[in-house]
């Protein structure tokens, strides 16, 4: 008789977590660089070091994109329970050698040479004179005070220098001090700051204008025309910041960060460019009419993030007549725009009933891949209008109190293809979505509270009575 014995052998194979990616994967920078990490393994946590050592689970835990301001060798490793840790990912970031620092001060003198203006005691007196000293990698620091001038532009004898990807030009307020640029109509000035590229040989690029650890304000209160015999503001002109290219000129990699832009009769910001970043600014009380906005412009790969746009005559952000492509409007606070009649600082009768927070309206162009994400929008006639766009998205925004004396809308759609609306919250308003022409958006996971008409944007179970 033959006996047979059967064995069952169980083998457990531990999986290995996918190696993280670091974006960008190293390189040189002049001011700062934003670094992001990710792994393809769902649920895995990434730990990292900045001194070149191997990460462990006691190292720094990655929680989101970070700003690197000094040279670093970043190593990253991903871990999850029950799996082998990933291989190391590594990227080296090098801060380029800084250029020269120049100074501008109210007690300076424009007859001082650029070499002398490197000393804070023998500074230039005007910002324009300081800019004429700059080259790639240089910094201009502006001391406290009010500067009555229009900064930049050939009309002021200023031809903008350009930086490079590794050596940006930095213009900033002196640390701890407040600088006000305040043009005056009595001196023929109606702009505070202009980047004006006027020909193909006049490319302006890699410049940062920022408050830094001080405060930089563009103020238009002295660019005002008064109605005869009154102190009523009427027909104000001007703009806070202009970014404009024509006759083949180009604006690229301009960063505007941390400014306050206020009290201009025209737009707070006008124009745009390519790879322009508008970050962390407070743009308010601009625009005497509904045709003037917090920002009127647009461009390619433009980023508007972390700003406040409020109490402007028309829209907070109006990207119009530009081919807005691969651009992003995110994490902004936008409120009380198009409010001309209700705000005491403006005169009655020049209001705007068809205005609000954000509009993407390229007119003769076709915008695409525009991301409008994670903004908070309230007290607006209209929330977001998307027109003539393809493959754009409205994600994670909060809309509330779009509930004025006549029917309003949180999102308006005109001929927008493959527009996606997901994970938004709509509260206290009339129409959540209004499609004037073209296909309806693709809806997912939106919540509505106390709104009148959802038009399919939200689950009916989330509805409440309109107050």
Briefly, what is this?
The chain has 467 residues and is mainly β.
Describe it:
It contains one helix and 41 strands. It has 467 residues and is mainly β. It is flat and about 115 Å long. 45% of the residues are buried. It starts with 20 loop residues before the first strand and ends in a 14-residue tail after the last strand. The chain has a 19-stranded parallel beta sheet that branches. The chain folds into two domains: 21-95, Immunoglobulin-like; 101-462, Pectate Lyase C-like (3 Solenoid).
Q: Rg, please?
A: 26 Å
CATH class of the largest domain: Mainly Beta
Tell me the CATH topology of the largest domain. Pectate Lyase C-like
Which stretches are low in confidence, meaning pLDDT under 50 for 5 or more residues running? 225-235, 340-351, 463-467
Would you identify the CATH architecture of the largest domain?
Answer: 3 Solenoid
Beginning-to-end CA distance, first to last residue: 89 Å
Q: Structural class per helix/strand content?
A: mainly beta
How many separate domains? 2
Q: What does the overall shape look like?
A: flat
Report the strand count: 41
Instruction: Tally the helices.
Output: 1
Beta-strand proportion = 35-45%
Residue-averaged pLDDT? 85
Give the biggest sheet. Answer: 19 strands, parallel
| Portion of residues within helices | under 10%
């Amino acid at each position: 008789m033959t006996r047979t014995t059967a064995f069952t052998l169980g083998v457990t194979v531990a999986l290995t977590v996918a190696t993280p990616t670091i974006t960008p994967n190293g390189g040189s920078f002049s001011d700062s660089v934003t670094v992001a990490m990710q792994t393809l393994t769902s649920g895995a946590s990434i730990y990292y070091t900045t001194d070149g050592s191997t990460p462990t689970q006691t190292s720094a835990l990655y929680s989101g994109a970070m700003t690197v301001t000094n040279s670093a060798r970043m190593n990253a490793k991903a871990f999850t329970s029950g799996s082998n840790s990933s291989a190391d990912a590594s990227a080296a970031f090098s801060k380029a050698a800084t250029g020269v620092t120049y100074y501008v001060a109210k007690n300076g003198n424009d007859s001082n040479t650029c070499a002398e203006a490197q000393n804070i005691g023998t500074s230039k007196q005007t910002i324009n004179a300081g800019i004429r000293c700059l080259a790639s990698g240089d910094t201009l620091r502006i001391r406290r005070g009010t500067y009555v001038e229009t900064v930049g532009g050939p009309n002021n004898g200023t031809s903008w220098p350009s930086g490079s990807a590794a050596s940006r030009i930095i213009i900033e307020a002196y640390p701890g001090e407040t600088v006000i640029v305040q043009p005056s109509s009595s001196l023929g000035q109606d702009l505070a700051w202009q980047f004006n590229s006027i020909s193909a040989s006049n490319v302006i690029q890699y410049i940062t204008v920022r408050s830094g650890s001080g405060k930089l304000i563009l103020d238009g209160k002295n660019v005002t025309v008064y109605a005869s015999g009154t102190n009523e503001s009427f027909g104000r002109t001007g703009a806070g910041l202009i970014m404009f290219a024509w006759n083949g000129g180009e604006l690229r990699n301009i960063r505007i960060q941390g400014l306050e832009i206020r009290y201009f009769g025209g737009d707070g910001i006008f124009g745009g460019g390519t790879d322009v970043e508008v970050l962390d600014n407070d743009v308010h009380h601009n625009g005497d009419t509904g045709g003037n906005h917090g920002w009127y412009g647009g461009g390619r790969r433009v980023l508007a993030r972390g700003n406040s746009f409020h109490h402007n005559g028309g829209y907070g952000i109006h990207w119009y007549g530009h081919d807005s492509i691969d651009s992003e409007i995110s994490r902004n606070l936008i409120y009380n725009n198009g409010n001309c009649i209700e705000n005491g600082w403006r005169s009655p009768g020049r209001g705007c009933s068809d205005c609000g927070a954000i509009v993407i309206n390229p007119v003769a162009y076709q915008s695409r891949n525009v991301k409008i994400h994670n903004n908070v929008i309230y007290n607006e006639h209209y929330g977001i209008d998307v027109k003539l766009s393809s493959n754009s998205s409205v994600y994670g925004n909060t809309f509330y109190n779009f509930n004025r004396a006549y029917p309003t809308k949180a999102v308006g759609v005109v001929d927008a293809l493959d527009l996606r609306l997901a994970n938004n919250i709509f509260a206290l308003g009339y129409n959540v979505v209004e499609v004037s022409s073209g296909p309806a958006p693709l809806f997912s996971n939106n919540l509505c509270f106390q709104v009148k008409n959802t038009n399919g944007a939200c689950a009916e179970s989330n509805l409440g009575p309109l107050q």
